[in-house]
Amino acid sequence: MPHARFMKPFCRMINIDREATDKLLKQEFLVLVMPYLHWETRKAYEDMLKVIDKVKQRSEPRSNHQGGKPKSLEIPDTTFQDDREQIQIDRKLIQKYLSGSSLHIRRTLDQSYYYTLADTRLRDRDKDQVVYRYTKQLRNNSEKTPDTSPLQSMQLEPLMLMVDQCWLWILDGDTLLTCFPQRWGQDVKSKDETDVFQSIFAYLEPQEHLNRIMCVQDLAFFIIDRCAGNVLNPSLTRGATSQFLEIFSKSIGALADKQTSRFRELMSQVGLEGGNLDDLFDVYPEFTLLDEIRDVIEELSMIENINTQQTEAMEELKDKRPDKYGNSRPTRRPRHLYAPVMYPVQLHSRSIGRRATVESLFKSAHQVLQLLDLKQKQANVSEARSARKFAEETEKQGQSILLFTVVTIFFLPMSTLASIFGLNAKQLNKGEMSLGIVFAYIFPISLLVFAASLYLGFKHRMLQTFSRPPQAGTAPKKPNRSLSFFRRMRRSNPKAEERGRDPQV
């Protein structure tokens, strides 16, 4: 996996122990390696992936060879044709050094954080980048605007956050060596405020700014600060699409606004007695918002991880002596030349400030998650309320059925006996029996059947009621207050107690 090639951040003194006449090779070097954030267009990133795929396919040995001879693994330079010379240079670099060499390619946020995952999975994850979704939506909106020209629409290419590496060596008091990659196919003549190389030279172009760099350590600190705050420092980027922390903030705000609207709809549905519970329990829109906010939180954690690595490298830089290499640093610097130059302590504090900014975005994202949890809680409350109403309706129906059953039990024996006595039978005196005698038979027999039916029907409930043992922890019955009052009176009046014991009284 090419994206798994990278150097972990560190800052230390390295001693090259070799026999050489060159004095430069016998001394210690200060080496610093740290990651930093950059960006790339989606189109350029896909072009780079195509080149990497073809190189990997040609470099893999094939099991089946025609004629028993393996095909040549050498990639001709005419494999890719493009009119832009810089893209040809970038492609040839990958073709030449990707296989069998330690070429470190540019990585996306997910590739830098999950560098052990397969490349196919990473590409699916890269399509969900917050910056990519935002810039793609921005381009779609611009295409719908009639005032937008085709050239302006082409300039609004969807962007992606990338992770590059800064390698820096301080060889001696006058020599500094550093390198960092550029964007795919970037024209060296085009101006890019986020390009570290261009931003450094653009700042040092005026003589006034150049005079502020008094020694090689000043230049090293300045380069480190520019790399660390490349896309996270709003003062270094002025374009609407290059304010990446602002993009995260706007994305979180848009998700919070959507969730607030959904929450208001939820409250309106809850307020209605006959509301549609299907809409209330439909969580698909919330799951969509949850997936987006999870992506935001995950990418913010990746950015925070990069800031942590930068902070660790700068903490190691604080322990190194800045005046290690000779007396190139002046003993006194003019007061107006102090501010622009970053020293290790200031670099470390600024890195902590960037981490605080990312953490504030974390809190905003988690607040949106709290709004999403309210939907689930409200759904649980509504479900419990519906269950309670259903239980109440069931209880009412049970009481109605019980009443109907009791009435039926009461009148069924009476109607049965009345129908029997209404028969013109010889045993019943041919229907000439008096009404009093008929009632004397009907009512006692009906009451007996009714009582027996009630006893058999409610026997278990009555047994449970009267044979229930006292519950543990119940308070004992309080004594009669009047009796306790008279007892206290008798104790407080011993003479009355003696008179009560005297049989003559």
TrEMBL record:
TM region(s), chain numbering: 401-423, 435-458
Lineage: Eukaryota, Fungi, Dikarya, Ascomycota, Pezizomycotina
Domain of life according to the entry: Eukaryota
GO molecular function terms noted in the UniProt entry: cobalt ion transmembrane transporter activity; magnesium ion transmembrane transporter activity; nickel cation transmembrane transporter activity
Main location: membrane
Keyword check for Transmembrane helix: yes
InterPro entries: CorA_MIT, CorA_TM1_TM2
Region feature (Disordered): 57-80, 467-505
Ranges of Basic and acidic residues composition bias in the record: 494-505
Subcellular location: Membrane
Swiss-Prot/TrEMBL keywords: Membrane, Transmembrane, Transmembrane helix
Protein name per the record: Uncharacterized protein
Membrane topology: Multi-pass membrane protein
GO cellular component, as recorded: membrane
